[in-house]
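Case study 2.
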Amino acid sequence: MKVLFISQLYPNRYDPMPGLFVRKHAQAVGIYADVAVLYVHPDENIKKMEIANQTSGNVIETYIYFPADGSKIIKHVRYLMAYAKGFREIRSRWGKPDMIQSNIFTRTAFIAFLYHLVYRTPYVVIEHWTRYFSEKTFNNKIHRFISTLTARHASAVMPVTTHLQRCMEQHGMYNKNYRVINNVVDNKFFEKLEITTTTERIKILNVTCFNDKQKNISGILKVINKLYKKRTDFEITLVGDGIDFQEMIEFAREMEIDPGVIKFTGLLEGSELVNVYKQCDFTILFSNYENIPVVISESLACGKPVISTNVGGIAEHIDESNGILISRGDESGLFNSIDYMLDNYKKYDAKAIAAAAEKKYSFKAVGKNIIDIYNEILHS
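Prediction:
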């Protein structure tokens, strides 16, 4: 089977971070099928279209960069022309796909829909976006029309949580074949599980993008400050970067939190990120809204229990066996949960948590789930 991924976000020559979850899905499917990715990207530094071909693991990647200058109409025309050029490149180098995997509504789903009209190739759409959680963030009439149209004609729509599916359906995005799929966790998170037996301070971890409006980092800091006045047997590491990074550091200083208790590392990746997960005793997340953040599946993959607000689809992944759920904005609940976890984190079965996570979030597990959906579509 040949599967062509197209996506609104994907790692590119200017930024290696966007759409990493899409690349992981492509690599997961690539275990069971031939996979190519076509990614179209506007570029202010070029005057004519450029093609770049490369491979990432078991995936062939074709990039079409097109000039970003001109009016909106010109940009839209160039966008369509870039995809047309990309499809010709893919067919000449790789062949005609059996399945189109679109990632994120609306534009790429529309491209997949157009390809389906011409070549009758079935397409499916994976969705991650939290914009469906509020009427205000999904009220553009054109976007809604195209989204509902492309959802209705897709062979399957695959949100990453049941909660997201329900929100999409409430916006009129109907499809007879909704199938929830998980995001992928890198293999290194599952390797050499070590149960922490530290005799020093108990280690708490928060991995975040430092957007306080969403992640409520200031709420975490206020709770930590209050808890440290009760007990001093813990420390917390906050990993990540973002628009409120410096502001949160200053906020911690203003509250005069003991510098030995709190550490801001900035962005960590690869082995450095895995190591902080392995070395912590449990993780916390105090978000005001989410879909299903990858930090939860990464924590579980390392066998670490999670304290989190019960928002988005998080309750589909956290239960009594692997963590604690609290209400959004409930600082008292966070205080009590951390206080409890500091005394009881060793009671959670780290090996069982990691084993369950591997069955849900590994490349093989997620890839098998997706490929089974493709096969059902192609053989129905």
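The first strand starts at residue 2 and ends at 7.
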